[in-house]
What does this fold into?
Amino acid sequence: KIHPDPSAVAKIPIFQDHTTGVTLIESMVIADYLEHKYKSSGTQLLPDNSDHTANIKLFIEIFNSTFTSAMFSLFQADTKAKVEEGRGRLAAALRTIDRFLQERSQPGGPFFMGSKFSQAEVVTIPFIQRGVATLPEYRGIDVWEIVGEVKATRMKEWMEAGLARPSLIETKPTDEVIRDGMRKFLVQKMKEDN
It folds into this structure.
């Protein structure tokens, strides 16, 4: 009832701030709202430096247009050839993100902002969690294996740090729950390759 598009396949996250009456959808919008509203409490997820904030936003955009897009194309693959093509897209995505991390992330730690956990991880690591949990089961593709194949060492370091973050561990659903939740995006019946 809250989502403006009743036909949307994905209807979460939805956020309601009962103190102000604000109702929001979409991860980035919610993350920005919470960052601005509660800037003085908890972990600052966006730096005061506008160049660094722009790089975080660009990282998220590149991540979504490469990794997230490749993951969902694999869910929609309906032939073995399309799965193999999707695997190639995923490998290219991991190379692109690795290069961006090498060139634009801050030194001094494994996160995008070096030692500081930021919105770069808040918005993207849940998709890494989903890919790691679902792709081996649904398409026989191991994200970690591809990271090694393409020698994405900075990506590996970033993924390990993000997935090990205590707040992510404490709030992560089980792999089974993740797979069940992502099943609605999956083409389950594979056709024969022509």
